[in-house]
Design brief:
alpha+beta; 4-stranded antiparallel β-sheet; ATP-grasp domain-containing protein; R2K_3
Length: about 450
């Protein structure tokens, strides 16, 4: 049926002659059927300026029921919403198809790029070496681990637990069977029913660091998110921050375009990072329908669908990004940090501790988005995040007072946070704004 829309193969080609003909479908609000989920409100409003937009109940779909609201749509449609396990997406696709609504990616295409085993072999030379088992069985993956050496990451087909870096994600030496078993077991137990597919071991790669925290050793690296539509770059931007001005070369952009041409799906994301040797590598693929925009402006994203011709990557901002490879203080408890705060005896110590807590909070705060609200895991992680958040609020007040006393606290500007106010003060004590993180001046 997809082939009939524009008489082309279902993947790797533009399926409509005018991209304005594409519809969008979003999750509705769980309490208000005819309102969009509040996390997608901006996207819904922007998409609705030039496209027909429908809503559906994600909760009903979890039980196999399709409940549609909003505009009536038909034809080619892009879903924008929460991740679905491949089985759920397949049901979603088939139920929509019965109503004349055709999602841009088939269930096979969705699974191919939503799960690591689906795309890994096609891009094995461009990504980290990986092995996996298919049942979520710890003993199975430990057998595969015996053939490996060096540092690895454990994850499932879709997600890792990067917010629990040393406890349930990073394995410093895979040959250390006791620690390897501990980390993998922690990961599997904590994923619980959220585990997708099987267990994956990914070779840990040294990425090009553009900075690191003096005390914690927090690595800061360069990464990009690219949306690919029909084998061509739709839009791209840095992954975390707009502050670092690192440009991709023409050769590197051409390399990304070659990767995009090899994609066997209509709409995906590719996350690219720079290795320590300067070469680019693929970190992850994702289905474009369930991938976040990261630093891409909502308006820019939906305007990219207004173009009848594909836009070259060179026309988009290609700045680099600072990302956290791991928890900046994986072994530091809330209680230990409270003791550190109580023993502060100088402004430099105050600033150093402030940076540690600030970066820790914003790193682990990301973890909340990995879980369904009110689930046991969500509640557990939320308690940890809130404890660090309380410390950050306390230190925010102390640091503002210190900056004011030194007459280095700038006036707060409209639509600007405290980071701009603190720039001169933080620079005096050796730090600069890394977008989301405070990082050490070189």
């Amino acid at each position: 049926m997809l082939k009939q829309i524009d008489s082309v193969d279902p993947f790797g080609n533009v399926l409509v002659k005018n991209l304005k003909e594409i519809n969008f479908i979003f999750c509705n609000h769980p309490l208000y059927q005819r309102k969009v989920d509040e996390d997608y409100e901006d996207e819904y409003q922007e998409a609705g300026l030039h496209h027909s937009c429908a809503l559906f109940s994600y909760e009903d779909m979890e039980s196999g029921k399709l409940s549609l609201f909003g505009e009536e749509i038909s034809g080619l449609t892009i879903y924008r919403g929460w991740m679905m396990k491949p089985e759920m997406y397949s049901d979603f696709y088939k139920l929509l198809e019965q109503k004349g609504i055709y999602l841009i990616n088939t269930p096979e295409e969705y699974e191919r790029y939503h799960t690591l085993p689906g795309w890994h072999d096609d891009f094995a030379e461009e990504t980290a070496q990986s092995v996996w088992e298919t049942e979520g069985n710890i003993e199975n993956i430990l057998l595969k681990a015996k053939q490996l050496n060096g540092p690895y990451i454990v994850k499932d087909y879709v997600k890792s637990r990067k917010h629990e870096w040393y406890d349930a994600c990073f394995i410093k030496n895979i040959s250390d069977i006791a620690n390897t078993t501990r980390v993998i077991r922690n990961f599997v137990e904590r994923q619980g029913d959220s585990l997708v597919g099987g267990i994956v071991l990914r070779k840990f790669m040294d990425l090009h660091q553009i900075g690191f925290h003096e005390r914690s050793g927090m690595p800061i690296s360069e990464e990009y998110r690219i949306f690919v539509y029909a084998g061509k770059i739709l839009i791209m931007d840095n992954y975390w921050t707009e502050k670092e001005d690192i440009r991709l070369s023409d050769v590197e952009i051409s390399w990304i375009e070659c990767i995009a041409k090899k994609v066997r799906s209509n709409f995906v994301t590719i996350d690219i990072a720079r290795k320590d040797d300067g070469e680019l590598m693929i970190m992850e693929f994702g289905d474009g329908q369930v991938s976040g925009l990261q630093q891409i402006e909502t308006k820019d994203f939906y305007q990219s669908f207004e173009q009848e011709e594909r836009i070259s990557a060179k026309e988009f901002f290609t700045d680099g990004t600072a990302i956290l490879i791991g928890d900046p203080m994986p072994d530091k408890s809330v209680e230990q940090m409270q003791l550190d705060i109580a023993s502060i005896s100088s402004t430099q110590e105050l600033v150093d501790v402030y940076v540690q807590v600030h970066n820790k909070f914003w790193y682990i705060e990301d973890a909340l988005y990995d879980y369904e609200e009110e689930s046991e895991e969500y509640i557990r992680v939320k308690e940890i995040v809130e404890a660090w958040g309380e410390m950050m609020d306390l230190l925010d007040k102390k640091i503002m007072v210190a900056a004011k006393e030194e007459r280095l606290l700038a006036e707060r500007q409209l639509n600007s946070g405290t980071v701009k106010q603190l720039e001169s003060f933080m620079k005096k004590y050796g730090y600069k704004d890394g977008g989301r993180w405070w990082i050490k001046l070189e």
